[in-house]
């Protein structure tokens, strides 16, 4: 179970949010064709935390993530990364501090596992030996060292997902500023044990290495357990935002997901459990 931050830490973090934000989203709107997908989003996202984006299908979660990595044209508003407007970033420079794990990464050429992970080295100026050491470390982090020389297309869906996670972590291995890690449904192809392993790793990267982790999830209980902050979207708008026990109430769940839950507070960690 990940360690929870103290009330004093949370209060201190909240009071200095704007000046310390790694990602600033201001009045962001996105239309696809004539259809509004995101409407007037305002968020300040901090380092050293896991921020989970929640909502039903079509709520705008993945579009918001794509907006942060310049894959979607903004209809209105602005985004800043590390204190600099996103549109002013050189892509090669931004790649040293921002990495994205998409829902699906198609790769059919018979690369070896370690060769796929090595693709994450492309923005880094390092020696070959340093690169090999980074790749080995990231494979170890995702428990795939034994598959280092396997052909990537022969892997299971869950194994491929973990290889891609090792690749994006390799990309951030020498970030000079706060690493920003965007994860779009990273547990979708994983069995239960690996889901918790990956989310525990995300939590560790945030809390022990000061990463800014933004993750799209569907499992509300996992979001409560591993995220410091929940941002809940409905029809392209933020309808709830805060610590799990504050943001995810029975009323919010019924309103957003159209499901009347049984919600209890775990006496051990004071976090919601949804049934």
Cα-to-Cα separation, first versus last residue? 19 Å
Output the strand order for the largest sheet.
6-7-8-3-9-10
Element-level helix/strand string: HHEEEHEEHEHHHEHEHEEHHEE
- Averaged pLDDT: 93
The largest sheet, given as strand count, sense and whether it forms a barrel, is: 6 strands, mixed
Radius of gyration: 19 Å
Label the overall shape: globular
Query: Helix- and strand-based class?
Result: alpha/beta
> Could you give the count of β-strands?
12
Low-confidence stretches: 5-16
- Percentage of residues in helical conformation: 25-40%
Fraction in beta strands: 15-25%
List the total number of helices.
Answer: 11
What does this structure look like?
This is Heme ABC transporter ATP-binding protein. Belongs to the ABC transporter superfamily. Residues 23-260 form the ABC transporter domain. InterPro entries: AAA+_ATPase, ABC_transporter-like_ATP-bd, ABC_transporter-like_CS, P-loop_NTPase. Part of the ABC transporter complex HmuTUV involved in hemin import. Responsible for energy coupling to the transport system. Helix content is 35%, strand content 24%. The two termini are 19 Å apart. The protein has 275 residues and is α/β, with parallel strands linked by helices. The chain has 11 helices and 12 strands. It has helices spanning 7-15, 17-20, 61-68, 91-94, 113-118, 128-141, 157-171, 192-209, 220-226, 244-247, 250-257, and strands at 23-32, 35-45, 49-54, 76-81, 84-85, 98-101, 180-184, 212-216, 229-234, 237-242, 263-265, 272-274. The strands form 3 sheets. A 6-stranded mixed sheet has the order 6-7-8-3-9-10, with helices on both faces. The chain has a 4-stranded antiparallel sheet with strand order 2-1-4-5, covered by helices on one side. The radius of gyration is 19 Å and the shape is globular. Helix 6 crosses helix 7 (157-171). The model is unreliable at 5-16 (pLDDT under 50).
């Amino acid at each position: 179970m990940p360690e929870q931050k103290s009330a004093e830490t949370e209060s201190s973090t909240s009071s200095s949010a704007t000046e310390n934000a790694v990602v600033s989203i201001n009045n962001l709107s996105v239309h696809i064709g004539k259809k509004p997908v995101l409407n007037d989003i305002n968020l300040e996202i901090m380092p050293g935390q896991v921020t989970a984006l929640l909502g039903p299908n079509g709520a705008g979660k993945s579009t918001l993530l794509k907006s942060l990595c310049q894959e979607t044209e903004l209809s209105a508003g602005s985004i800043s990364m590390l204190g600099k407007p996103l549109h002013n970033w050189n892509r090669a420079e931004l790649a040293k501090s921002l990495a994205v794990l998409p829902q699906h990464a198609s790769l059919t050429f018979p690369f070896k596992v370690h060769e796929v992970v090595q693709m994450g080295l492309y923005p880094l100026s390092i020696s070959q030996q340093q690169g090999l050491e980074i790749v080995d470390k990231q494979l170890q982090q995702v428990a795939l060292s034994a598959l280092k020389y396997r052909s990537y297309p022969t892997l299971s869906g869950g194994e491929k997902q973990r290889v891609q996670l090792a690749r994006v972590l390799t990309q951030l291995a020498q970030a000079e500023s706060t690493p920003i890690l965007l994860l779009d449904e990273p547990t979708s192809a994983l069995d239960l044990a690996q889901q918790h392993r990956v989310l525990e790793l995300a939590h560790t990267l945030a809390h022990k290495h000061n990463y800014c982790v933004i993750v799209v999830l569907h499992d509300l209980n996992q979001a409560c357990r591993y995220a410091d902050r929940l941002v809940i979207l409905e029809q392209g708008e933020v309808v709830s935002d805060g610590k799990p026990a504050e943001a995810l109430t029975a009323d919010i769940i019924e309103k957003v997901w159209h499901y009347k839950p049984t919600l209890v507070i775990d006496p051990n960690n004071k976090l919601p459990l949804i049934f």
